[in-house]
Every structure is written in C-alpha cells, then in structure tokens.
Design goal:
heterotrimer; A mainly alpha (about 325); B alpha/beta (about 230); C mainly alpha (about 425); A: about 325 residues; ABC transporter involved in vitamin B12 uptake, BtuC; 12 helices; about 5% strand; C: about 425 residues; mainly alpha; 16 helices; about 75% helix; about 0% strand; transmembrane (chain C); cell membrane (chain C); Branched-chain amino acid ABC transporter permease (chain C); ABC_transp_permease (chain C); membrane (chain C)
Chain lengths: ~325, ~230, ~425
C-alpha cells in the first residue's frame, strides 16, 4: 500500500501538477499560434516575468501591512495577471505588431520573439539576479497530509498545489464559456479559423489580438507564479519549459485550446511517469517475477527528462502533424 | 446616381499590375455580372473593391462615398458583403455561430434577420448546431450566403458562387441569387458560367486583359455575336 | 544597375576597411597575443555564421539549435583526435562499445525498414505506427545497453578516451556528425511549416548538451577534456604568437575556401533554385521542384559548416567543456552576426561574425566598467547597497542587448549592413 501511495505522490500528483502548468502555458501558445500565426518563443520568460510581478505585488502588499487569511502571494496573482496581460499587449505593440503590419513572414516573428525572450531574460536577471527566491514572504506554505486507507504513508499535497489544481479547473471552465458564449470569444475562434474571412466579415482584428495576449499573458503569469510557489522562483524557466509547452501545443493541434489542455496533461504525465521508478510498484511481487528487479527501473533517467517532450514532439510530427485535435499545419 | 461606380481602375499585387482600366456602374437593385476569360481580372476586380490589393489609379464610389483603397475590415460597416469563392465559412464554428459572426458589427437585435436566413435556407436550420466544416459543399455555400446576408447588405459581391458545384446546384444558386436580389439587395458577381449568369443579369461586364471589352445589359451581351464568338464559346 | 553594383562594392569596401582599422587598433592597444586569439575565434565564428547564413539567407530556415551542432561537432572531433586511453582499451570497454554499435546499426536498420515499409504496401498510418514502434524498441535496447556500458566504462577506465587521429580528420568528422543529426531533424521537420524546425532545433540542441554533459563515459562530462591537439605547433614554451598566427592562417584559409565555394553555389542554378524556393515556395513547387529535399540539402550543408567551425573553435580553446556551450554564445550571438551582417550575403556573414565578435569580447570589460560607475555613484549619492552578485548581474545586460539588437535589426534594417546582392524575387 505504501508503494501505491508513493506512486500517487510521485507519479500521478506530480504529473497532474506539472501537467496543469504545461496546459496553462500551452493554451496561450496555441492561441497565439492560431491567431497571430507564429510560435511564441518568449512564453517561458513571460511566465517568469509573471511570477516576478506576483512577487513584487505580494511584497508591496506585505509592506503596506495587508494581512489576509491566505498567503499574500495567492491574492497577488490576480492583479499580477492583469499587469502581465498589459505587458504582453505592450510587447506586441512594440515588437510584433510593426512586423505584422509590414507583412513579415511568420518565421521573422518567431525570430523577433526569440529577441524578446532574450531581452526579458536579461532584464529579469539584471534586476533580480539568478538566485532562487521564496514566494511565501509572510508565512511558510501549508502542507497537507491526507491519510490513505491501509498505508502508513500519507498522500502529500501542498497549499500551492491545491490552489493550482483548483485554478486550472476554474480557468479552463472560464475559457470554455468565453470561447463558446461570448461574442469576442467566438470572434477569436473565427480569426483562428480563417483570418481573411474574419476580416471581410468586419471582425475587429485588434480586439481579437488584445484578447489573445490577455488570455496568453494572464495564464502565463498564473502558471509561472504557481509553479514558483510550488518550488521556488528562479529565472531559469525559459527554454526548459518552452519545449514541453510547444510539444503540448503541437500534440493538441495548433489553434485548439482544448487540445492544448489535453496535450499539457499528456506531456506532464508522460514526463513524470517516464522518470518514475517503476521498480517500487513491482517490489511487492518481486518473488514471482522472472527477472531480478533492478534498483531503478525508470524509462528515462531524470537528467534526460527533457527527452520526453522532445520524443513526443517528434512522434507527433512524424505520425500526425495536425495533432490529436486536428489543428492546422500551415 | 449609381450605387457602385468604378472608374478607370488600375490595381495589382505589389509591383505587378493586373487591372488596367476597369469601369463599372451598378444601379441599386440590379444584378451585375462580370465575365471574361481566365486571367482577365474578374476576381481581382472584386478583391480591389475589398481593399485586398494595391490601387494605383482610378476610383471606387459606393452610395456617393469614395471607398477607394478602403481596408477590408471597414466594408461591412458600409453594408457591403463579400462571399469568397473558397474558404468562405469558419470551419470549426457551428452554422449558427457562422451567422452570428456575419452580424459581428451589429450591436442591435438581429434575430429577425437570422430567422429570415433560416427561412431562405431551411437545411441550415436543421444543422445549426453542426460545425460548418462538416457540411456538404452546397450547404457550405448556403452558410456563406447566409453569413453575408446577416448585415442586411446593400451590395453583395459573389466570387464564382457556382465554382465546383454540380449543374443541379448551379441553377439552385442562380435562383437564390435572384431571390436575394428581389429583396432589394444589389448583386455584383463574377462567373465562369457566363451564359447562365448573363441570362439573369441586368448588366454585364466582359473583361479581357484587365480592362472592359464590352459593357451592356445582360440580354444584349448574350445576343451580341462578337461577344458570343470570343467569350461565350460560340 | 551598374552604378548600383558599384555603390554596393564601395559600401563593402568601406565596411571592411573600417573593420581592418578596428582590428589594427586592437592589435596596437591590446597586443598581438590577445588580438590573435580574438581573430582566430572570430574566424571560427565566421565559419559557423556562413553555415547559418546559407540556412537562413539562402533557404529561409530558422535554426535555433546552432549550439547543438557546434557541441556535437566539437565532441566528435575530441573523440577522434584526443590521445587514446590505454585503460579503456585494456578493459572490456571496446567490446561493450562494439556491441553498442552493432545494436545501433541494428536499430537503424529497423528504423529504415519501418521507414520504407510504404513500398511493401503499408499504409500511411501503419507506416507511422511501425516507425514509432521501431523508435521505441531502439530506445529501450540502446538505453538499457548504454546504462550498463556507462557504468562499466566509468568504473574501469574513467572514460573511453580518443582515437588519436590527426586533427583535420577530427574536424571533417565533426562536420559529418553535425550533418547526420541535421539530416534527421530536417527529414522530420522540413516538410512542415517553418516554426516546427525552430522548435525541433531548440529541442535537439538542449538534448545534445544535456547528453554530452551527463555522459561521463564518453566525454568526461563536467570533468572536461584537455589539452586538445592542434593541427599546427602548439604554443609550447610561451611561443604564443607563432602558434596562434599559424592557427589563424589555417582558419582563414578554411573560411576563404568555403566562402569561394558558397559564392559559386549561390550563383549556380542550385543557388538560384534555393532562392526561388525561399521567395515563393508555392511557385517553386508548382514548377516541379522538390522543395523539401532541396531544403534538407541546404540544412545539412549549413550544419556541416557549423560542426566544422565548432570543432575549430573548441580545439583552439584547447579545452572541451560541455557546460561551456551556451545558447547565448553559440546560437543567438551567431544569429546577430548573420542578420546584422546581412542574411543571404556571405561577405555579410563574415563581416558580421568578425565585427560582432569583437564587440562581444569588448562588451564584457565595458559593461563591467559601466556598472562599476553606476555602483560607485549609486553608493556615494543614494546610499545604495549593491547586491553581492552585482557583477554577474551586470553581464546579463549583454543578454538584453543581444535580444534588443535582434528585434531592432528585424524591424529597422531587415537586410543588414551588407544586403543580399540579388533582389528578392
């Protein structure tokens, strides 16, 4: 039983946590890809940026003497999402929009986003250094031990993990309602479907672009902040988190928000299960196995974790480049 | 005064010029048909009205206003609708949502127009919850028409509405064009099937090499032996 | 047109003369030993930049994994040229590696069979499935063997050591290895939209680096390998100038030869076709050109140059340290060289490489000096307490500047300092 709990903790829960992060990142990337037609390489650093905005707002609130029933950082996420969304629109206005208006090829925009990611990286590290920071400035995070029937070990969940899972559910529902019920949400789907037709129908492309950056920037901020709360805040997300997020985007089909969510969880689970030490689960039945149980039976050594999203990406590109939700291949 | 008046239009993509002096005038309530051989600039003329290419000379007037070189986003506000030849529906949106998008610029209550569209195209009402991409070619064409009608246009531009459809559908489409025109909408359309199209046209424009070679009523063009010889295949 | 060409040539002349002047100033102020080192490194970067400029400038391929090809090339060259490790050859190591190679060949054959299964009547889906199965089987077999092999070799002999072959052989193998990796990446991604290549190359670069860093049995990992052999006399007994000058002439000859070959190719039908594909893919496809395989060709060719240049660079540094490969220095810096110099123009790439590298090297002391001023006045005037990691933070300014340069060039000077000679179609 203890082994099962270990599996739940190290396999299922971690997969779900990291899957939620990837899903939230991938929603933004897939919508930017679908509507603005380029792979946004600055998304990882946008997540870091969002996390820092949260930290700054939390610190400001704390120094203003605000006391809340929950850790201040949680409350700070909401305004931080708004700030990051505004920053995202600003980045678009300064760096991407002029290129779009000049009719640049999509790959030039990809390159510009690489430039933006370097700028963000440089600025963040210049002002904040590279050391790890704790997002919980007023109180340590709570850790819940949920007893599991028949086991001495408990299922362990931390406060930010619970918030993260709850937040993901709420965000996905809200996004669904927005895309299917609201006028602007439908317009976003229309632009992603057929930009030329959307234009001649009179859909205001500017509003759609803003909405895209608001959703993308807001979710990137939330994902970055919650990830930093779960672990620590370090400005080194960028390329390491970009690859799984792109894999999730392409697996889910470009321009497909639901696909991005599915893809995010798929990549998250594959990653955790691939580095999970399966011999733990086999230990109870080791006498009836025909081979000697090795100490470590992970499919992929932890240091090569990055291989997993990459392999998923390669397999999807070979086998089904449109992704599981039939996105577009442009 | 004409509803749509195109004078001496020169336009093209980038440096390359395709239209070299197109003239067109349509009165309100008319059907105008643009015919001509491949590469004569028929579809290009429509695209020029729609602000999709560079206009180097000439002007386009609509309802007394100069709309030369207008951005395509702004045309719906003038109540001009365009039905492109292909890719003319939003594939992942449902039929109903497609119609709603047609009415995107309207902030008033458009349920009456929507009911009207469902009346003209009964199959759409049945399939209103289905993604438009799953419909047959003919039904997609209906969605495209319906979407265009949502702004209650004064002028509707059709780019080869019968392209790729079977002959049976073709006459249905022409019937529908007439029906739409009867409700007071001016129609300008580009057609490959010149004979059938000219038969329903009030005015016809035969283009060749990016300029008008004949301009007359539909009937007169059909009866003009020279037009018949060079453009209608005898 | 004539006058235009003349103007352009004059522009080239002025820019290169300015560059020569800059180099002369550096020689005078910094001394020959330092300047020669800088020039050799700049020359190696020029080779890599030539590789990138044909990928981007000739064919419009966006490669964000230059670092990966450099690292792979450098590692291969180290393995070919470094003196042999007798401990390894006396242990069961060679046998293990031999079996590994057999298994590798077997896996490759399996993958190849799955790939051509279409010819035996397998449908698209079945073929895809077979490929996936082949990859999975190959992965499990190879990774299981590699775990054992790595453990044993590390325990018995530390690492496998080199083959002790001549340096030039190592450099050529470096190019070949980088080319093979590029072929695989290109095969998968180049038929799809351009963004996918960017994503895939980003991934492959990170994975190559991770692998080289962790595979202690193969590369000694973080323990680093040194001293690497030189193709010319090494600076023994402090004879730096002669040694570096001869290394420099070797690099210069290589760059000039590659430059001349590329110029010929650019003006040959092959180059014209490449440009046609870049500028109008649909039209080129309609004319019956096989766009994807042409792209694979140029992607492989560019990557070969990157591997080759990377090997030259690492041999000169004389120390192989896998953690020393950085996205910033080995991918984005080269991007700046190419787009600033003028993408699609080989002279532009060489000019950009030398100029940007000089600026890059100079930027470190300049940034530190600048931030030192900020610190001094900040402390004196505002009673500011600078953070302890102030210097390392200050260097992050360079990351920012690289990013800013990329975005500014794209927006305001997309054709670079030395624009491409032929007009885009």
């Amino acid at each position: 039983m203890n082994d099962l709990v270990f599996f739940i903790n190290k396999g299922l829960l971690s997969g779900m946590i990291i899957g939620s992060i990837y899903a939230m990142g991938a929603i933004g990337v897939t919508m930017i890809f679908g509507i603005l037609r380029f792979a946004h390489f600055a998304h990882g650093d946008m997540m870091t940026l969002g996390a820092f905005v949260t930290l700054i707002i939390a610190a400001l609130l704390a120094s203003a003497g605000v006391v809340l029933p929950c850790p201040i950082a949680f409350a700070a996420i909401i305004p931080a999402m708004a700030v990051t969304a505004v920053l995202a629109i600003g980045l678009d206005r300064i760096f991407y929009k002029p290129l779009r208006n000049a009719g640049a090829r999509p790959v030039v925009l990809v390159m510009a986003s690489v430039g933006v990611t370097l700028m963000l990286q440089g600025l963040i590290r210049l002002f904040a250094g590279v050391r790890a920071r704790d997002m919980f400035i007023d109180q340590p995070k709570d850790i819940f031990q949920i007893p599991f029937p028949g086991a001495t070990r408990a299922v362990i969940l931390t406060e930010p993990q619970i918030v993260l899972i709850g937040f993901t559910v709420v965000a996905v529902l809200a996004l669904h309602l927005f895309l299917t019920r609201s006028r602007l949400g439908k317009a976003m789907r229309a632009v992603s479907d057929n930009p030329e037709l959307a234009r001649i129908t009179g859909i205001n492309t500017n509003h759609v672009v803003w909405a895209t950056w608001i959703i993308g920037g807001g979710l990137a901020c939330a994902a970055g902040s919650l990830l930093s709360m779960d672990v620590t805040l370090k400005p080194d997300l960028s390329f390491n988190i970009l690859l799984p997020i792109f894999a999730a985007t392409i697996v889910g089909g470009i321009g497909q928000p639901y696909g991005a969510i599915a893809g995010g969880f798929l990549v998250g689970f594959c990653e955790t299960l691939a580095v999970f030490n399966w011999s733990v689960l086999l230990r109870p039945i080791k006498d009836s196995l025909w081979f000697e149980l090795p100490r470590n039976m992970a499919l992929v050594p932890t240091e090569y974790k990055l291989m997993v999203p990459f392999l998923i990406l390669i397999i999807v590109l070979i086998y089904r480049p449109t992704g599981i939700f039939r996105g577009r291949v442009l | 005064m004409s509803l749509l008046k195109i004078s001496n239009l020169h336009a093209g993509y980038g440096q390359m010029s395709i239209l070299k002096g197109v003239d067109m005038a349509l009165e309100a309530g008319e059907i105008g048909v643009i015919v001509g051989p491949n590469g004569a600039g028929k579809s290009t003329t429509l695209k020029a009205i729609f602000g999709m290419l560079n206009i180097t000379e000439g002007s386009i007037e609509f309802d007394g206003e100069d709309i030369t070189g207008i951005r395509s986003e702004a045309l719906a506000a003038h109540r001009i609708a365009f039905v492109p030849q292909e890719n003319n529906v939003f594939h992942t949106l449902t039929v109903h949502e497609n119609l709603e998008m047609g009415a995107y610029i309207r902030r008033d209550d458009f349920s009456r127009v929507m009911d009207h569209v469902y009346e003209i195209f009964p199959p759409l009402k049945e399939k209103r919850r289905q993604p438009a991409g799953e419909l047959s070619g003919g039904q997609r064409q209906m969605v495209a028409f319906g979407r265009a009608l949502m702004i209650e246009p004064k002028l509707i531009l059709l780019d080869e509405p019968t392209a790729g459809l079977s002959p049976m559908f073709m006459s249905q489409i022409f019937d529908r064009v007439i029906a739409i025109n009867k409700t007071g909408v001016t129609v300008a359309m580009v057609e490959q099937n010149a004979k059938q199209a000219l038969a329903i046209a009030h005015k016809g424009f035969v283009l060749a090499n990016g300029a008008n070679s004949f301009t007359d009523t539909g009937r007169n063009l059909l009866e003009n032996p020279e037009v018949a010889k060079s453009f209608l295949g005898g | 047109m004539e006058g235009n060409l003349f103007d352009r040539n004059r522009r080239d002349l002025i820019l290169f003369a300015g560059l020569a002047l800059l180099v002369a100033v550096i020689f005078l102020t910094q001394g020959s030993v330092y300047s020669l080192r800088m020039l050799v490194e700049a020359g190696c970067y020029a080779m890599i930049a030539l590789g990138l400029t044909i990928q981007w400038g000739y064919a419009g391929l966006f490669n964000v994994g230059v670092m990966g090809f450099i690292a792979a090339g450098a590692a291969s060259s180290v393995l070919i040229t470094f003196p042999t490790n007798p401990d390894f050859w006396n242990s069961n190591g060679p046998q293990l590696v031999g079996i590994f190679l057999v298994k590798l060949a077997f896996s490759a054959a399996l993958l190849w069979l799955a790939n051509i299964s279409g010819r035996f009547g397998a449908g698209r889906r079945l073929r895809g499935l077979l490929i996936v199965i082949a990859i999975a089987v190959a992965y499990l077999v190879l990774s299981a063997h590699m775990t054992v092999m790595a453990e044993q070799i590390e325990a018995n002999s530390g690492w496998i050591g080199g083959l002790g072959l001549p340096v030039l052989v190592g450099w050529i193998v470096a190019g070949v290895v980088a080319g093979i990796i590029a072929w695989f990446v290109g095969k998968i991604c180049l038929g799809l939209r351009s963004d996918y290549l960017a994503i895939a190359t980003l991934g492959i670069a990170q994975i190559i680096k991770h692998f080289l860093k962790n595979a202690d049995w193969l590369t000694r990992g973080t323990l680093t390998v040194s001293p690497l052999p030189w193709p010319v006399e090494t600076p023994s007994g402090g004879e730096f100038i002669m040694a570096r000058a001869s290394y420099l002439s070797l690099v210069a000859i290589a760059v000039v030869i590659i430059y001349l070959l590329l110029e010929r190719a650019y003006n040959a039908p092959w180059g014209r076709m490449m440009r046609a594909i870049r500028d109008n893919e649909t039209a080129a496809e309609a004319m019956g050109k096989n766009v994807t395989s042409r792209r694979i060709e140029i992607f492989v060719l560019g990557s070969v140059l990157m591997g080759f240049g990377g090997a030259m660079l690492i041999h000169f540094a004389s120390i192989y340290d896998p953690s020393g490969f950085l996205d910033l220095n080995h991918t984005f810096l080269i991007w700046v060289m190419v787009i600033l110099g003028g993408s699609g123009n080989n002279r532009g790439a060489i000019f950009g490489a030398i100029f940007v590298y000089i600026v890059w090297v100079m930027s470190e002391p300049i940034t530190l000096a600048l931030f030192d001023v900020i610190r001094t006045y900040g402390v004196a005037w505002f009673d500011w307490e600078p953070p302890s990691d102030f210097n390392s933070r200050a260097l992050q300014m360079r990351v920012f500047v690289i990013g800013l340069t990329i975005t500014l060039v794209l927006r305001f000077a997309p054709r670079g300092l030395l624009p491409e000679r032929q007009a885009r179609h």
